[in-house]
Amino acid sequence: METALEPCPCHQALQHAFQTVRNAIVGVESDRVLAGSELLLRSTEKWMSLYRCRTCGTLWVEACYSSGHMDLYYLFPAPPVEDPVRWLHQEAAELPPP
After folding, report:
1. How many domains does the chain have?
2. Beta strand 48-53 pairing with 37-43
3. Do the strands 59-66 and 48-53 form a parallel or antiparallel pair, or are they unpaired?
């Protein structure tokens, strides 16, 4: 559990470039961000979920990249939009492949 002295995991996670799946957050770093976040919405059609950090309010998208051999779940920040739910359903897209 984070204390007031520990920084939010989003601060470090947001240092990624997020240009492609390769630059996204995966593994332990992804687990740390999701552990401090709440699920807001899941789009089964897009294989994407929207989360909000309980500490700083950053919105994160969890998406799935399939290489044909395995599925890789990764995180990237949602863009600043007025209605993130509408954005997820109507505009959200996966990051480009590596």
Report:
1. 1
2. antiparallel
3. antiparallel
